[in-house]
């Protein structure tokens, strides 16, 4: 299960970078935690431990939507997902291990 979730996260990071026009990056050490749970109405919702603005929200929404079918299929009612956090590039050279949608 962890490999499947990891694969989904990796593919969503790539999709997000490819579909974002602005220069954004994912620092290897900048992590977020999504708490995904089932509500009383039997629908999933998530909360994020970080709030980094519009890029973070767009990425979390995309990741959440992509994980939902896997969680439903496997009957998972609650899970914490650790993920990288997108940040707007601000002309500071990123450290090694940073995923970006631009050359630096």
Description of the molecule:
The chain has 104 residues and is α+β, with helices and mostly antiparallel strands. The chain is built from two helices and four strands, in the order αββαββ. Strands 1, 2, 3 and 4 form a four-stranded antiparallel beta sheet that branches. It is elongated, with a radius of gyration of 14 Å.
The tally of strands reads: 4
The count of helical stretches stands at 2
Give the proportion of residues in helices. Answer: 25-40%
N-to-C order of helices and strands = HEEHEE
What's the main sheet like? 4 strands, antiparallel
Rg over C-alpha atoms, rounded to the nearest angstrom? 14 Å
Structural class: alpha+beta
Mean pLDDT across all amino acids: 92
Overall morphology = elongated
Taken as a percent bin, the fraction of beta residues is: 25-35%
Uncertain segments are none
Distance between the termini: 34 Å
Task: Identify the notable features of this structure and list them briefly.
104 residues; alpha+beta
Secondary structure topology:
Elements: H1 2-19, E1 24-38, E2 44-48, H2 54-73, E3 78-88, E4 99-100
Antiparallel strand pairs: 1-2, 1-3, 1-4
Helix pairs in contact: 1-2
């Amino acid at each position: 299960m962890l490999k499947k979730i990891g694969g989904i996260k990796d593919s969503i990071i790539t999709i997000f970078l490819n579909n974002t026009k602005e220069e954004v990056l994912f620092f290897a050490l900048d992590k977020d935690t999504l708490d995904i749970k089932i509500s009383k109405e039997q629908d999933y919702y998530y909360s994020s431990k970080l709030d980094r603005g519009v890029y973070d929200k767009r990425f979390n929404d995309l990741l959440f939507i992509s994980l939902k079918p896997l969680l439903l299929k496997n009957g998972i009612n609650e899970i914490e997902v650790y993920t990288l956090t997108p940040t707007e590039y601000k002309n500071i050279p990123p450290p090694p291990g940073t995923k970006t949608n631009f050359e630096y």
